[in-house]
Amino acid sequence: MRILLIEDEKELLLDLSRGLHLKGYAVDQAETGPAGYQMAIDEEYDLVVLDLNLPEMSGLEVLSRLKQEKPALPVLILSANHQLETKLSGFELGASDYLTKPFHFEELDARIRVLLNRKFIQQTHLLQHGRISLDTFRRAAAVDGNPLPLTAKELAILEYFLLHEERLISQQEIVEHVWNGDSDPFSNSIRVHLSALRKKLKAALGYDPIRTKIGEGYIFS
Ligand code: CA
After folding, report:
1. From ligand 1's centre to the CA of 77, what distance in Å?
2. 130 and 216 inside one domain
3. Number of structural domains, the chain?
4. Are 159 and 69 within one domain?
5. Which of 85, 119, 153 finishes a domain?
6. Distance 119 CA to ligand 1 centre (A)
7. If you measure from the C-alpha of residue 169 to the centroid of ligand 1, how many angstroms do you get, rounded to a whole number?
8. Domain that residue 65 falls in
9. Which residues carry the record's DNA-binding region feature (predicted)?
10. What confidence tier does 127 reach under pLDDT thresholds 50, 70, 90?
11. What whole-number distance in Å separates Cα of residue 142 and Cα of residue 109?
12. DSSP letters of 185-216?
C-alpha cells in the first residue's frame, strides 16, 4: 500500500514516514500544498495523510481540488486544528477521517488500516486465500496457520496479491502500490523481493502460487 504524506513540519514528517515504513507501507512525502497536490494527481496512491496548515496552498484547498480529480482516493486529515467547524468543512469536502494533533502513532496506524480495508471492501482485517492468511493489523502472514516469516516488503507484495487474486498485475502496478516514488521501477530490487517471497511461499505450500506471464506481469492464484 502506498501512502502520500503532506506535512510541513519536517520532524513530524520524518517520524511519520519512518513509522509507516516500518509498518510495511511505501511512503512518499510532500512539504507544501501545491507539491502534495501535484504528487497525488500524478502518482497512484492508496491513501493521503493531509495536514491543513500548509505553505502556499491550504490543506482544505488541496483536499477540495484533489477530490474533484480523484473522488475515490481516501484522505485522512491530520491537524492541530480541533475546531468543530474546520472538522466539518473537512468532511464536507470529502475527507474520510480527521485526527487531531497531538496523536498517538498507533491510533493513526489503526485509522489508516480501517480506511484501506474499507477501500478494498474488506469485511475483516484477515485476508485469506486457500492455505495462506495475512493479518493486516498485526502485519503477519501464515500458511496452514503456521507463521510465515516475511520482510515488510515481501508482506506488502503478498498483501497486494491477496487483494487482487486471479488478476494480471504488472510489475509497474506493484511498483506503484508497494514502493515509494524514489524507487527505480526497472531496478532489480523488485524482482529480488518478489523472488524471495515466491521462494518462501513455495517452501511452505509445496508450490508457487504466483505465475509469471512473460512481458505482462504476474497472476496470484
Ligand atoms: Ca502544518
Report:
1. 11
2. yes
3. 2
4. no
5. 119
6. 27
7. 37
8. 2-119
9. 124-221
10. confident
11. 22
12. TTSTHHHHHHHHHHHHHHHHHSS--EEEETTT
**Residue 185 vs residues 68, 102, 171, 189: alpha-carbon distances, Å:** 29, 36, 8, 9
29 Cα–ligand 1 center, Å: 13
Distance 197 CA to ligand 1 centre (A): 39
Give yes or no for residue 123 having a pLDDT over 60.
no
Percent of the chain with pLDDT over 90: 72
Q: What pLDDT digit, counting tens, does each position of 31-73 carry?
A: 999 999 999 999 999 999 999 999 999 999 999 999 999 988 9
Query: What are the pLDDT digits (tens) for 163-220?
Result: 888 899 998 888 888 877 666 655 668 888 999 999 999 999 999 999 999 889 999 9
| 80 Cα–ligand 1 center, Å | 8
> What distance in angstroms lies between residue 218's CA and the mean position of ligand 1's atoms?
41
Q: Pick the last residue of a domain from 119, 144, 160.
A: 119
Q: Cell for 153?
A: 516488503
Instruction: Give residue 137's Cα distance to chain centre.
Output: 13
CATH code at position 96: 3.40.50.2300
| CA 89 to centroid of ligand 1, rounded, Å | 17
Residues 90 and 141 in one domain: no
Output the CA 32–ligand 1 centroid distance in Å: 9
Q: How far apart are the CA of 137 and the centre of ligand 1, in A?
A: 28
Judge if 87 and 159 occupy the same domain: no
Q: Are 79 and 112 part of one and the same domain?
A: yes
Give the CATH number, domain containing residue 137: 1.10.10.10
At residue 141, does pLDDT exceed 90?
A: yes
Q: Provide the mean pLDDT of the chain.
A: 91
Q: How far apart are CA 181 and CA 173, in angstroms?
A: 12
User: Can you tell me the distance from the alpha carbon of 50 to that of 153, in angstroms, rounded to the nearest whole number?
Assistant: 24
> Given this model, what pLDDT does residue 43 score?
94
How remote is the CA of residue 103 from the centroid of ligand 1, in Å?
Answer: 14
